[in-house]
Amino acid sequence: MTDIANIVQGFSGVRPLPGVQDAWTWSLGTMFTYGLALTPDGAHAVQMNVRGEGDEELMASVLSFARERSTEVLAAVPFAVLEGYTPPEGSNYEFDTVGAVIPAVYRLHKKIPELAEVTYQVFPAWRCEFSGRESQIEAVDRFNKFLESADIHRLPRPFLKMRFDNPKTGGGSIGSELGLARTDLLYSELRKLDQAEGAWIDFQNFQNKLRRAYWEDGLRLASEGGEGREIELTDLLLYAHRFLTEGVDDES
Description:
seven-stranded antiparallel β-sheet, about 25% helix
């Protein structure tokens, strides 16, 4: 079994993480701060990376929560979504979840293979950022291109898949499959539906709910397989935001 504690305690500038047993923190100048804690079996570790100066109280909170739920972390396929997280009392953080990724999604300690194989990255997050259905390829894209997990001051990055076609602008997605996208693309394309006869956008949230916005003698919104209802653009943009972040249905 890899002696994780011995390896980590050999890092430059490493010191115990206050308030957490078998946990340590260290930094790379002013660029990154790291925290790592052993799992109860002693054979694995959970690690949190923070861009810039770290918040030791938040780091201790996240690592402790992940360690308590280590069975779920080690069973991640490829994300583990640990709901029920509450940030430290008195902090300004609004996270409600801790996310974890398997080493195959993001490999830590690449120069120390024996440590890399048993270290799982964890980070504070929001439930709306994970569908629970991501393939490993999608998880890599989400983690590396969308989530910005090392930024503890970030806003939510809701899970979104979409496809669209707009004859008026000539814009559209390639192929018939839904693809991962950023919310700003969805909001931009929703605004472009105005007076674009035949234009449509399908968008799917973290709960696997699918909605279609389209222009047909006016702006309309429909649930999957349902009839479209008229809607104003301002209301549609607000609906889309709540749909992606909270999972509201058409009647909310």
